Amino acid sequence: MKTVHKSAKLANVCYDIRGPIMDAAKQMEEDGHKIIKLNIGNLAVFGFDAPEEIQQDMIRNLPTSAGYSDSKGIFAARKAVMHETQRQGIKGVTLDDIYLGNGASELIVMATNALLDNGDEVLLPAPDYPLWTAAASLSGGTPVHYTCDEANGWMPDLEDIRAKITPRTKGIVVINPNNPTGALYSKELLQSIVEIAREHGLVIFADEVYDKVLYDDVVHVPMASLSTDVLTLTFNSLSKAYRSCGYRAGWLVVSGDKKPARDYIEGLNMLSNMRLCANVPGQWAVQTALGGHQSIDELVQAGGRLRVQRDLAHELITAIPGVSCVKPQAALYMFPRLDPKIYPIKDDQQFFLEVLQETKVMLVQGTGFNWPEPDHFRIVFLPHEADLREAIRRLAVFLEKARVRFGTN
């Protein structure tokens, strides 16, 4: 029979958060092993329940949710998002500037597809949330990664951004708060990126999914609030702050000067219409979530479960010889470094596959987040404290054996 090949468009598409290591973990689970999963921010499976009022609103509206909605989303949800932009100080947003999607993920793919032609470039952070790089590649574009400086708290390197802009550069992605590092960017840094975008006519893609998952009284500045002229697309969702990953409810807000972008916005509308609409039951949760009690605040404040587990994970992981980590200010992750002099790893995917096989702990290697060196990994600190302690204890034992193997103990 003739061999059926996947599309060549997938040649540079990678999403290792659900990649070979997860495939191996599934097989191990089928064989009867219990895996401690520190690989994905799926809050509900770790006992972080969606707020009850969100659940009840979806249930009440199910009888009227069987039909398609407007392709951009139901009125109540878009109006709630519009009010949220006003609260954030983002000017000039109307209902027509808001798109509801099946999570922010669908909207990221839609936005890059609508913008990029073959060979167009988009700037992305390194490390990044790998869906952005995959979406840019799938759209026919070329992802170009700018460096986030670990020695400077994982802040984007402005000079590196400037150096990587070419005549083919059409946009810049800013993930703030950042996944995978947990870094939060200052207003001054964001203003500098806005100025670079203004100077070079770039579209800003602002991924702000973790904007309410903040620790130590830090404050998030919405990027779109810093200009009225630079075209900015802001992405957010119910998945993290509202612990509703499975509801697949996200939104995209277009702000800034929209007149020069009429053709691009027409492209967004075309793609929005093609998928008919987003999941309607999930859309009914948006108004209640944004307008109601922000229960995430109790989880991130002193004594809250997320704050406690962040502190615990950071303490335990940095106690391992040769492991350092910038303490995250936001989000659900940290991105520890394995000192290459102590852990001279050549293939980090293979290394963390061995971690899984020996310890039954699932992590994601740093190169899976488009970090160029095999010396980092991402840890999710969502499991209950006992599981978190046990997982990091097992990792510490594995790394001790690795030091013996490498002759660096």
UniProtKB/TrEMBL annotation:
Give me the segments passing through the membrane: none
- Which keywords does this chain's UniProt record carry? Aminotransferase, Pyridoxal phosphate, Transferase
* Cofactor(s) listed: pyridoxal 5'-phosphate
Query: Sorted alphabetically, which InterPro entries does this protein's record hold?
Result: Ala_Aminotransferase (IPR051926), Aminotransferase_I/II_large (IPR004839), PyrdxlP-dep_Trfase (IPR015424), PyrdxlP-dep_Trfase_major (IPR015421), PyrdxlP-dep_Trfase_small (IPR015422)
Q: Does the keyword Transferase apply?
A: yes
Q: What is its EC number?
A: 2.6.1.2
Q: Does the keyword Transferase apply?
A: yes
Q: Name one GO molecular function term.
A: transaminase activity
All residue ranges annotated as the Aminotransferase class I/classII large domain in the record = 34-395
Return the similarity comment: Belongs to the class-I pyridoxal-phosphate-dependent aminotransferase family.
Q: Provide the protein name.
A: alanine transaminase
Query: Which species expresses this protein natively?
Result: Acidovorax bellezanensis
